[in-house]
Amino acid sequence: MHAPDFSLKNKLALITGSTQGLGYAIACAYAASGATVIINGRDAERINRAVTSIQNAGYPAQGWAQDIGHLDDQASAFASLVEQVGVPDILVNNVGIRIRKSLAVSSFDDITTMIQVNLVAAIGLSKLAAQAMADRRPSGGRIISLTSIAGQLARPGDAVYPVAKLGLQGLVHSLAVEFGPYGITSNGIAPGTFATESNRELANDPVKGPVVVGRNPLGRWAQPDEITGAAVFLASPCASYVNGHTLVVDGGFSVTF
Ligand SMILES: NC(=O)c1ccc[n+]([C@@H]2O[C@H](COP(=O)([O-])OP(=O)(O)OC[C@H]3O[C@@H](n4cnc5c(N)ncnc54)[C@H](OP(=O)(O)O)[C@@H]3O)[C@@H](O)[C@H]2O)c1
Question: Residue 3: inside a domain, yes or no?
Answer without folding.
Answer: no
